[in-house]
Amino acid sequence: MKLTIERAALLKALGHVQSAVERRNTIPILSNVLLSAERGRLSFSATDLDMEIVDEAEARVEQAGQVTAPAHTLYEIVRKLPEGAEVTLAWTGEDPRLSVSAGRSRFSLPVLPAGDFPVMSSDGLSGRVAVDVNDLIRLIDRTRFAISTEETRYYLNGLYLHTVTEGGIPRLRAVATDGHRLALAEMPAPEGSVGAPGVIVPRKTIGEARRLLDDAGESVDLAVSPQKVRFDFGAAALTSKVIDGSFPDYARVIPRDNNRVMMVDNQLFARAVDRVATISAEKSRSVRMAIEPGRMTLTVRNMEAGQAVEELEVDYDGEAFELSFNARYLLDVTDQISAEQAEFRFGGPNDPALVLDPTDPDVRYVLMPLRV
């Protein structure tokens, strides 16, 4: 194999695929990226056995061939080469080293046989559905903060993508929850998506898909099966196993009868919560909210660090009540609100609160109160 490729094109493609490679691997070839050169193209593939990312770039191929090389090392070499450099990759087929050269720089990297590199099958995936890039970015950005990191509840370690029909209108919905808060965002269902199986896309896959969306065009092709999901971004593609489990019946925890409605300036509220939480105990980070007509009082008490109190003006005219929330969860939700005002809908002191963005009716957040 021998080819020459522009440094910028090589760096972009390697940047897309190398993040699929785990830093620590017990299987040596999983630390490598598969390089395949033919007909003016250089293709890249990297995997951790649960997820595979592929990409390609134009190259001047003198001799076609395949080889694998250390992904992170190759990426770092290319990243440190000068802009505008022409990079030559060469491997004789018998040499245990891949030659990487650019200008006066020369590198030799160990290789492993391309035939040993695992390839993820796309069998069983449904027909491709085109999803607008901005819509998919919105679904991910508005929900992924609520994905659980608790490995024992593995079925919550991903984003639940599925279609629902409400009022005769099909919707593509993304839901994430960790049992303490829930985030839901939806959009009109793309043509052809109705009837596709709902899938729980792993947290790492969601992170990589979101990163690749920044370089995507106007739309992304999405295909799913009960076992896999595939995102096609054009030249790049991501295929991943989905979480084998049942997502909980989240609809049961979304409040429908919370009739205590409070409007508050979102930025002022977020800054106030952040200030009083400065002295909160690290584990609970509990903030007490006392709400009465026209006013909210935030209180944090810490036996060691003291007490913090701050008052805010709010639009509320119901009866007074109090409840507590985790400060971090409150701030995570306010980060997602794009409107000037955040809308809180409360039930009783131990009931979950519903948080809405007045400018985006297709997102909903649920926060469980702390029992203190």
UniProtKB/TrEMBL annotation:
Keywords attached to this entry: Cytoplasm, DNA replication, DNA-binding, DNA-directed DNA polymerase, Nucleotidyltransferase, Transferase
Main location: cytoplasm
Sequence ranges assigned to domain DNA polymerase III beta sliding clamp central in this UniProt record: 131-249
Domain of life: Bacteria
GO MF term set: 3'-5' exonuclease activity; DNA binding; DNA-directed DNA polymerase activity
Pfam families reported for this sequence: DNA_pol3_beta, DNA_pol3_beta_2, DNA_pol3_beta_3
Gene Ontology terms describing biological process: DNA strand elongation involved in DNA replication
DNA polymerase III beta sliding clamp C-terminal domain sequence ranges: 252-371
GO terms for cellular component: cytoplasm; DNA polymerase III complex
Domain DNA polymerase III beta sliding clamp N-terminal: 1-120
Compartment annotation: Cytoplasm
Coiled-coil region: none
SUPFAM superfamilies: DNA clamp
Family under the similarity heading: Belongs to the beta sliding clamp family.
Functional summary from the UniProt entry: Confers DNA tethering and processivity to DNA polymerases and other proteins. Acts as a clamp, forming a ring around DNA (a reaction catalyzed by the clamp-loading complex) which diffuses in an ATP-independent manner freely and bidirectionally along dsDNA. Initially characterized for its ability to contact the catalytic subunit of DNA polymerase III (Pol III), a complex, multichain enzyme responsible for most of the replicative synthesis in bacteria; Pol III exhibits 3'-5' exonuclease proofreading activity.
Subunit description: Forms a ring-shaped head-to-tail homodimer around DNA.
Protein known as: Beta sliding clamp
Source organism of the structure: Phenylobacterium parvum
